[in-house]
Specification:
alpha/beta, 5-stranded parallel beta sheet, 15 helices, 5 strands, globular
Length: 374
């Protein structure tokens, strides 16, 4: 908490309820870092970096201020953790700890020649995606400036969208149905609702779809940049235990029925919007990942970290975003030259997955034709 206690953004929350702040903002990062040191799993390292980026994701801060905040939080984390462990660790262990933390600090506080500003509407799926994007994008000379809107309440969500409408973004992404983000569809991750009738599932899916389509229209009206809209793979997160696997199997039919309704309707709506907006609104299709990896693998939690439950789906979606972000950064006149992005997906161990990307981009970007994820 000492890393952020002086930030205006968090001062009120810390003063009002420091224990609640620790649970919501700090425990996940601490768990991820501990798991990384315990297992050496690089995915936990990426997710920890993503937590740091999220903590500094303040739409009010300009790029220079945000870069300063990121550098500050990374340096303070290193100093605080090393000071805490100094009386407890051996000299060799302390040196290894400091070396690993300095490596993370170099990523979190890195200066990029170009940056891409993103508005992300959805649940923690977007946070997972961003975690696996930071380093690949930095290798291309591109920094990320994400702003998250995680509100599930539709009225609150749309109020926040309108509040950000005057801010300049390079890309807006909306994932309306992932995990439990949709109140209407979130119930179908519970076995209690697994036996609902087909009619009940269809009505709930249609209600969720109608709300999502209205939000797509609002995003197209509020922002001049490209808008990406997710279909849903409809996976249920699980920890691999017998009980959780059984729950996935019990809810599979209901989730598949709902997925069919919302994906078909959303694809048709986005296609109409895309034609009206000359390709500015595009679909990113999650469903081919089901064929490539399988539902159980996509929903498998990478680890448990505080209240966070990052799953493999976000990791496998990251290369699709990387392609879009690279195209946007390349389209900007006057930005610093970028590195070669070939092989980036393979270099971080997420495979050569591709997705529907933007047909047209502002500023005459090179067109990228839709391609299904293999």
């Amino acid at each position: 908490m000492r890393s952020v206690e002086t930030w205006d953004r968090y001062a009120g929350e810390i003063a009002a309820d420091p224990e609640r702040f620790l649970r919501q903002e700090m425990f996940a990062a601490a768990d991820l870092l501990a798991e990384f040191f315990r297992t050496g799993d690089g995915r936990c390292r990426s997710l920890y970096i993503g937590e740091k980026v999220r903590q500094a994701a303040d739409g009010r801060a300009g790029p220079d201020e945000r870069e300063r905040l990121l550098g500050e939080i990374a340096a303070k984390d290193t100093a605080n953790l090393v000071a805490t462990m100094r009386p407890l660790a051996s000299a060799v262990g302390l040196a290894e700890l400091e070396s690993a933390l300095r490596g993370i600090e170099a990523v979190v506080g890195a200066h990029a020649g170009a940056s891409v500003r993103l508005l992300l509407i959805g649940d923690c799926l977007h946070q997972d995606v961003m975690s696996f994007l930071v380093e690949p994008c930095l290798r291309d000379g591109v920094g990320l400036e994400p702003v998250f809107i995680p509100a599930r309440n539709v009225a609150e969500q749309r109020a926040l969208i309108r509040a950000h409408a005057q801010r300049p973004f390079d890309l807006v992404a909306f994932s309306p149905f992932s995990y439990e983000f949709s109140p209407e569809l979130g119930r179908y991750v519970s076995p209690r609702h697994a036996m609902e009738s087909g009619r009940s599932i269809r009505l709930a899916a249609e209600e969720s779809l109608a709300g999502a389509c209205e939000t797509v229209d609002l995003l197209a009206a509020c922002f001049a940049c490209p808008v990406l809209v997710h279909t849903t793979a409809g996976v249920r997160r699980h920890d691999g235990s017998l009980r959780e696997v059984a729950a996935c199997l019990l809810t599979r039919h209901a989730r598949a029925a709902a997925r069919s309704v919302v994906n078909r309707g959303l694809a048709a709506h986005v296609d109409r919007r895309s034609r009206a907006e000359r390709g500015r609104v595009s679909l990113i299709d999650e469903t081919p990942l089901l064929g490539r990896f399988g539902e159980m693998a996509l929903g498998r939690e990478l680890c448990r970290a505080g209240a966070r439950r990052p799953a493999a789906l976000g990791m496998h979606l990251a290369p699709a975003y990387h392609g879009v972000i690279t195209a946007i950064a390349r389209a900007r006149p006057g930005d610093a030259p970028m590195g070669d992005c070939r092989g980036t997906a393979e270099s971080v161990g997420v495979g050569p997955a591709r997705a529907v990307v933007l047909r047209t981009l502002p500023g005459g970007a090179e067109a990228a034709e839709p391609a299904a994820m293999p």
